[in-house]
Design a protein that fits this description.
By secondary structure, this protein is of the alpha+beta class. The chain has a domain at 2-95: Alpha-Beta Plaits (2-Layer Sandwich), CATH 3.30.70.580. It is built from three helices and eight strands; from the N terminus they run βαββαβββαββ. The strands form three sheets. It has a four-stranded antiparallel beta sheet with strand order 2-3-1-4.
């Protein structure tokens, strides 16, 4: 069976999403560890994208193929019981065998938050990039004026035969 996982996590204390040979402390590694314990055999999952060390996700999607007698709700409950408190499985559902979280992704949304106040926000400090120096709002607005429209970045790709989407529209 192929299962889809909707996941949120605080990546502060992890070496990123992707499993690594140099550390077991990754989001993918922690989830695979719990699933492998649940099924009694090695389980690998694929994420829709990868985050770097210290980066958080509100809605990461992943999928994995394995057999279990648990239903989707029981899988979700089991995982959340054994995962660290900074990783939460929001939903588990069975999907077609052909579903692949990365290859079937329709969009990815990245949100970068900048704190500009003179005081630090102690409750959101891990989720904001502080910008304490003076900044030129007019210059930023002029620069942002170049963003709307359709932009294609195929010429920037190392692989000239790449057939995936290489642009965006704003």
């Amino acid at each position: 069976m192929n299962y889809r996982f909707d996941i949120q996590y605080d990546g502060t204390r992890y070496g990123g999403w992707q499993r690594q040979k140099t550390t077991e402390n990754t989001i993918q590694g922690k989830i695979e560890e719990v699933l492998s314990r649940m099924t009694g055999e090695p389980v690998q999952i694929q994420g829709a994208g990868r985050t770097d060390a210290g980066v958080h996700a509100l809605g990461q999607v992943a999928n994995g193929h394995f057999q279990t007698d648990f239903n989707c709700e029981e899988i979700c409950e089991y995982m959340n019981h054994y995962l660290p408190e900074d990783i939460e499985i929001l939903r588990v559902c069975q999907v077609s065998d052909r579903f692949h979280s990365r290859l079937n992704a329709r969009e990815k949304l990245y949100r970068y938050r900048i704190g500009t106040g003179s005081h630090k926000n102690v409750f959101e400090r891990k989720y904001l990039c502080p910008l304490h120096e003076n900044y030129d709002v007019e210059a930023m607005e002029r620069a942002a004026g170049y963003l709307p429209g359709t932009h294609v970045f195929k010429r920037c790709c190392a692989n000239k035969k790449m057939k995936k989407a290489t642009g965006w529209t704003l």
